[in-house]
Amino acid sequence: MGKGDPILEKAAKVLLGDGTNGRILRQIQMDIANGTNAATLTCNTIDQWNGNANNYTNNIAKGATTGIWTLSADGSTLTLESGGLSGNCIAVIAANIWKNESTANIVFLYMAYFNGIFLQFFNATTGAVVDLTTLVNTGSIKLVVTYLTAT
């Protein structure tokens, strides 16, 4: 594999993003847990690579924005708002569940959304959206999210 190799060139583009100056590849661990109040979440992020560490925000309620977090009215969609990130998120490269103490069989959709990180959770068997506030009553969910920002 030398210069002009399409596989090597593709790998370089992935690492560089779109090649625009100022793009930064970042990675965080995100923890989603049961809030102190009923039907709420507690969330935080931990820097793993150029990412942002955000302290725990407790009692993130459905249909509201609490600090840097927004939870949809049905509890299925969690957004880490741009205020919790360095730079504007322009792409989520990958996101994985690395620990699921809730034991529910879930999958999720991820994307950059208004400069933040959007995550929507589904039942892996039925495809129905799931309410995170109910799900984390039995245990937390931990994700690793790799994303690209513009400065």
Can you tell me about this structure?
The chain is about 10% helix and about 50% strand. The chain has about 150 residues and is mainly β. The protein has one domain (about 20-150). A hairpin with a 4-residue loop joins β2 and β3. It is globular and about 50 Å long. The model has no long low-confidence stretch (mean pLDDT about 90).
Task: Give the overall shape.
Answer: globular
Q: How many separate helices?
A: 2
Rounded to the nearest angstrom, the radius of gyration is: 16 Å
N-end to C-end Cα span? 33 Å
Regions with little confidence, pLDDT below 50 for 5+ residues: none
Structure summarized in a few sentences:
The protein has helices at 6-16, 132-135, and strands at 23-34, 40-49, 54-61, 64-66, 69-71, 77-80, 88-100, 106-113, 116-123, 141-150.
Record keyword descriptors for this entry.
single chain, mainly beta, 5-stranded antiparallel β-sheet, 2 helices, 10 strands
